[in-house]
Design brief:
By secondary structure, this protein is α/β, with parallel strands linked by helices. It is built from 7 helices and 10 strands.
Length: about 160
């Protein structure tokens, strides 16, 4: 688990100058938090969660902020509050965005999240709770995102 402090904008996640340079999230990945947290991208490991202590993802509606997080292997974002557009983009791209009190979550802690129960656990203990996401959001995660969820089946049914 990786903590970020302060209000984080989508420009902090992926600087605007890269938005139109690349459409491949893999080419955006090296620029994650480039100006906001220099060196952060080198420390991220696949499956890491990002935990914020403030509002996460305010600003523009760029979907590249979420695709850049995913391209770096980020599997979850937890924050007390989210910018509404980024929050929805997270779920649309199958990146769970959990609104919860993050005061008991510390850098490097190993956590697990049960979306269906609304629980964040560490070493078997529930350390934070959150409102359970609606069923349609859980279905989007299970489907791999909104587009996969609404895509017609090959049989046309």
């Amino acid at each position: 688990m990786r903590r970020v402090a302060g209000t984080v904008s989508t420009d902090d996640i992926i600087p605007a100058r890269y938005k139109h340079m690349h459409t491949d999230p893999g080419r955006l990945a090296p620029h994650l938090f480039e100006a906001y947290l220099p060196g952060f991208v080198e420390s991220v490991r696949p499956g890491d969660a990002i935990v914020s202590d403030s509002v996460f993802g305010i600003g523009s509606s760029r979907e590249q902020a979420v695709s850049t997080l995913l391209a770096n292997g980020i599997s979850l974002v937890i924050a007390p509050r989210f910018g509404r557009i980024l929050f929805r983009n997270c779920w649309n791209l199958a990146l769970p965005a959990i609104e919860a009190d993050t005061g008991d979550l510390s850098e490097g802690m190993t956590i697990s999240v049960d979306l269906e129960r609304g629980e964040i656990r560490s070493e078997g203990d529930v350390i934070a709770g959150f409102p359970k996401p609606p069923l349609f959001l859980l279905e989007m995660i299970a489907s791999g995102g909104l587009l996969n969820r609404v895509k017609p089946s090959p049989s046309g049914a």
